[in-house]
Amino acid sequence: xxxxxxxxxxxxxxxxxxxxxxxxxxxxxxxxxxxxxxxxxxxxxxxxxxxxxxxxxxxxxxxxxxxxxxxxxxxxxxxxxxxxxxxxxxxxxxxxxxxxxxxxxxxxxxxxxxxxxxxxxxxxxxxxxxxxxxxxxxxxxxxxxxxxxxxxxxxxxxxxxxxxxxxxxxxxxxxxxxxxxxxxxxxxxxxxxxxxxxxxxxxxxxxxxxxxxxxxxxxxxxxxxxxxxxxxxxxxxxxxxxxxxxxxxxxxxxxxxxxxxxxxxxxxx
Amino acid sequence: xxxxxxxxxxxxxxxxxxxxxxxxxxxxxxxxxxxxxxxxxxxxxxxxxxxxxxxxxxxxxxxxxxxxxxxxxxxxxxxxxxxxxxxxxxxxxxxxxxxxxxxxxxxxxxxxxxxxxxxxxxxxxxxxxxxxxxxxxxxxxxxxxxxxxxxxxxxxxxxxxxxxxxxxxxxxxxxxxxxxxxxxxxxxxxxxxxxxxxxxxxxxxxxxxxxxxxxxxxxxxxxxxxxxxxxxxxxxxxxxxxxxxxxxxxxxxxxxxxxxxxxxxxxxxxxxxxxxxxxxxxxxxxxxxxxxxxxxxxxxxxxxxxxxxxxxxxxxxxxxxxxxxxxxxxxxxxxxxxxxxxxxxxxxxxxxxxxxxxxxxxxx
Lengths: 269, 364
Ligand SMILES: Nc1ncnc2c1ncn2[C@@H]1O[C@H](COP(=O)(O)OP(=O)(O)O)[C@@H](O)[C@H]1O
Ligand SMILES: [Mg+2]
Prior knowledge:
- The complex is a heterodimer.
- Chain A is mainly α.
- Chain A starts with a helix and ends with a helix.
- Chain A contains twelve helices and no strands.
- Chain A has a single domain, classed as MetI-like fold, CATH 1.10.3720.
- Bound molecules: adenosine-5'-diphosphate and magnesium ion.
C-alpha cells in the first residue's frame, strides 16, 4: 500500500504539501479569530487563558455594535430583495427578448462588477452632491444594489438559458397568459437561481466595507465599518467575537441557501 | 376526389398565402392549405424546409409576415397565443419538469374555468386514453421517453383543441418505440376524431399515418395528396426524388403515338412512357422510374451490367450500368440473386415511367 504512495514521487509529495500549506494560509486566520473569541484573557491575542463567552456577552451590551448589526442586516436584506427583483426582470429581458441596444444594456448592467469599488464610491457621492441629495441610508442601499446587481443578472441569466423556452411556449399554448406563464413555469424553474442570488447579494452587501465607507450617512455604522473603527482604538477581544459572528452569518447563510437551492433544483427538475 | 372531399367537409384550418421571413430569408413562401375537420395531415419535407415555422405560425409562436390563418372559422393570426385553442406537442415533450403528471395535464384546464372535480375526471380519462392509468402523482423525470410523449399528447388533447399540432413527436424515440407510438398515435387520433397536423421529415412515418401528405421544399408546397397519390404520381422532380428511390432519366421525346411516347435518352438508348396529352415530339423531358419498377432479368430492351448488389432479404438493391446511364433497381429475388459484373437485361413498363418537363413538373 505504502509502496504505491511512495511511487508517486517527489512531485506528488510537493503538491500535497503546497495544498496543505495553502489551506492553512487560507483558514488559519479565521480559525484564530474563532478560537480567540472564546479566550478568557483581557487581550485579544494568544495565549489562551480559559474558555468563556464573556466577549459575546459584552458584545450584546454594546449599543454601537448592535445598531451597526441591525443596520447591516436591514441594508443587506433590502439590497438582496430589490436586487433579485430587478435582476430577474433584467435577465428575462436580456435572454428572452430582442430590443435595440440590448448589448449596451447588458454591458452597463455588468459594468459595476468590473469598476473598482473606490471609483464607484466616489462617483456615486459626487453624483449625489451634484443632485443636492443628502447622504441617507437609502443611498447606501442604492449603492449596494449597484454593486450586487451584476451578479444577480449573471446568475439568473445563466439559469434562464438553461430553462428551455419550450416550457413557456407550452404553457402559453395551453392558455396561460404571459403573467400566468411566468408565475407557474418560469419563476418556479428559476427558483434555485433566485435563492442563490438572494444569498449572494446578502453576503456582498453584508461584507462590503470599501464602498460603504463612502456612502454611509455620518454617524451610521455597518458591521464592517464598525469593526474597522473599533480596531482603530484597540484590538479588543470583543472584535474576535464580532468577527466570529460575521463568519457565521456570511458562511452559514450561503451554505443554508445552497442546500435549499439544491433541494429546489431537484424538485424542480 | 380527395380534394373535392376536403372542400365540402367542414374546414378546420385554413392558411391563405402565408409567408414568413426571417430578415431577408423567406422560411415560408406563400403557402395556402386547407384542412378538413378530423383530417390527419402531414407536412413532409427535408429539415429546414419550413414545416416547424408553419406549425408555429398556427400556434401563434411566430408571427407570419403575410397571409391569413383561420382555425375553426375564426381568424387567429392576429390574436395572442393563449387565446387560440390549439394543442401543441413538441419534439422533446416540454412537460413541466416541476409539476406532477396530474398538474401537467390539468394545466390547460385550469385556464378554461373547468371545475376541480371535472378536471380530475378529465385527467383520468386522458391518462386512460394514452394507456397510462394511475401515474398522476409521478414527476415527468420519473417516466420513460415514450411515456413522457404520451403525457404530452394527453396534455394537448385534454383541452379539446380545435387542432392538434405535432412537431416531429416521434423523432426522439428509439426505432422500435417509434413504430409502436406511430400506430398508437394514429389510433388515438381516430378515436378522438381530432384535426391533426403532423410534421416529420420521415417519409415512412408520413405515408403510414396520414390521410393527406403535404410535401414541402424550401418554404413552398411541392405537392399534396393521399399518401398513395404523392408516392405514385409525383408532380415535381423534388417529390420524385424525395419520396422513395427514383431513377431520373433525361432525354428528348423522339415520337408520340398510340398513347406512348418514345424517349431517346442521352446515351442513345430508347425507353417508352405512357404519353400525357402535353407530350410532343422534340420536347426535352426527364423520365422518372421508381427503383422498384426497374425489372432486372435475362431478356429486355435495355442491356446493362450489375455494378453493385445489396442483399436486403426478400429483395435486392442493384446498381446497374446501362451504356453509361446508372440505374437503381430494387427487385424481388426470383430464382437467384444477380451478381456483380453479370450482364443483365432491363425492362421498364411504359406505365411506370412518368415524364417531367424542363421545369421539373409532371407533363399533364
Ligand atoms: N428564429 C429564426 N431566425 C432565423 N431563421 C430561422 C429561425 N427559425 C427558423 N429559421 C430558418 O427557417 C428555416 C425553416 O425552419 P423550420 O421551419 O424550423 O424548418 P423545418 O421544421 O422544416 O426543419 C430554416 O432554414 C431555419 O434555419
Ligand atoms: Mg422542424
